[in-house]
Amino acid sequence: MRRFFVQPEQIEESVIHIKGGDVNHICHVLRMGPGDKLTVAAPDGKEYACYIEGITEREVTAHIMYVQDSQAELPSKIYLFQGLPKSDKMEWIIQKAVELGVYEVIPMETMRTVVKLDEKKAAKKAQRWQQIAEGAAKQSGRGFVPRIHPICSFEKALERGNACPVKWIPYERAQGMDATRRRIRELRPGQSVAVFIGPEGGFDEREIQKAEEMGYAPITLGRRILRTETAGLALLSVLMFHLDTDPDGGGQ
After folding, report:
1. Segments of the chain scoring below 50 in pLDDT
2. What is the pTM of this model?
């Protein structure tokens, strides 16, 4: 069924009020009408199976048939701190990261960041990135739309990521694939993970040193040097397979 996202205040006991741009999409793009079924997801992790009860110019009223917990989310929250890449690579990174189960994406400026955006352009980019996240969440059946944060500095990113019990920073000079495998095996469902990915050119050694001082663990992703748009997604893929469980609640 088609998937849409709402806020808690749009949900009543037996109906959900879908508003905004989704109304036009439902009526004029999908050409859905009364009786057609759809899925509505809310930030609390609940999914509502509904059918369209009524349509006006401003809202679609969906009648709730049943409610269930979302089965699409990973048991750990993964925060991707992504160094700003050139061109439109960030859009691709966000789309794929959402599909792979990321919880939030935090774009950041580092010493080797080439792209420099003024406040107006940064705000416009953030709005565009959030739209891409919503589209990816709908396509992949996510239970909510991951938040794409405004661009921040590397120092602010370190402070924000420090709240996570697990903090990794892939670095091309890091050694020991066995150590990386061990860290991944030791990760347990429920532990939040901060993953830091550098821009083109990678992290400066001083940034790695600062991260280590704050408890971040440099890890290796193998003997090949990955592009910035590949590195984070490679690690997210491994974490998805490590953390994901069977729909019936079975183990890994």
Report:
1. 250-252
2. 0.87
CB 187 within 8 Å of CB 180: no
Q: Report the alpha-carbon distance of residue 15 to residue 11 in Å, rounded.
A: 6
**CATH 3.40.1280.10 applies to domain 78-243:** yes
List the alpha helices (DSSP H) in 176-227: 177-186, 205-213
Q: How far apart are CA 60 and CA 37, in angstroms?
A: 12
Phi/psi at 235 (nearest 5 deg)? -70, -40
CATH of range 2-69; options 2.40.240.20, 3.40.50.970, 3.30.1060.10, 3.30.365.10: 2.40.240.20
Mean pLDDT, rounded, of the chain: 92
Distance separating alpha carbons of residues 181 and 183, to the nearest angstrom: 5
Phi, psi dihedral angles at 50 (to 5 degrees): -135, 165
CB-based contacts of 197: which residues, under 8 Å, 6+ apart?
80, 81, 82, 83, 170, 228, 231, 232
CB neighbours of residue 12 within 10 Å: 10
- The pLDDT tens digits of the residues spanning 235-252 come to 999 999 999 876 555 444
Beta-strand ranges (E) seen in the chain are 2-5, 15-19, 37-41, 46-55, 59-69, 78-83, 104-109, 147-148, 152-153, 166-170, 193-197, 217-219
Q: How does pLDDT run across 49-95, given as a tens digit for each residue?
A: 999 999 998 999 999 999 998 888 999 999 999 999 998 899 999 99
SS3 178: helix
